Amino acid sequence: MRAAVAVAFGRWHAWRAAMRAAGALAIVASIALTFATPAAALEVGDTVRLPAVQLLDGRTVPPEHWAGKPVVVQVWASWCPFCALQNPRLQKLYDSTRGTPLQVLTISIDKDQKDAVGYLRQRGYTFPAAMDTPALRAAIGPRKGLPELYVIDARGKVVQKEVGEMLEEEVAALAKYARP
Fold it and tell me: Are both 58 and 136 inside the same structural domain?
């Protein structure tokens, strides 16, 4: 009986040591992921595939929607003064290129979706807008500033990147991507 108890105690002790090691390994892995270098932001020449996107109006846009079309992607926030200057220009671009292959997608980084929805509604913006998601961050990478704008061609290559406010004529010039 004493031998059986000793064996059981030995097994329990070994199991406990293994669980401690597994826990320590999990903690180390968690710390490594926390402090890991984030994915690099998209740069001109990179290829990107946009994920499915849940728009603020409730529609879901599948990844296939973006495939084979040029897309202007802008990251913004309701509290960003430079976004407030650029968004009317983007609305004009969106209105002037409707019916062309050029797609527009804006991504709000507001913490509360209500802030983004209220901002769009108050200003009458109708361009497609979504909240930032892990899938979008994985596709686009970390932010370098606001607003941040990418033009992705029909093959999925980034052909233009702008960080910071663009002037009216610069945003209007993006209409060139609407032509095949």
Answer: yes
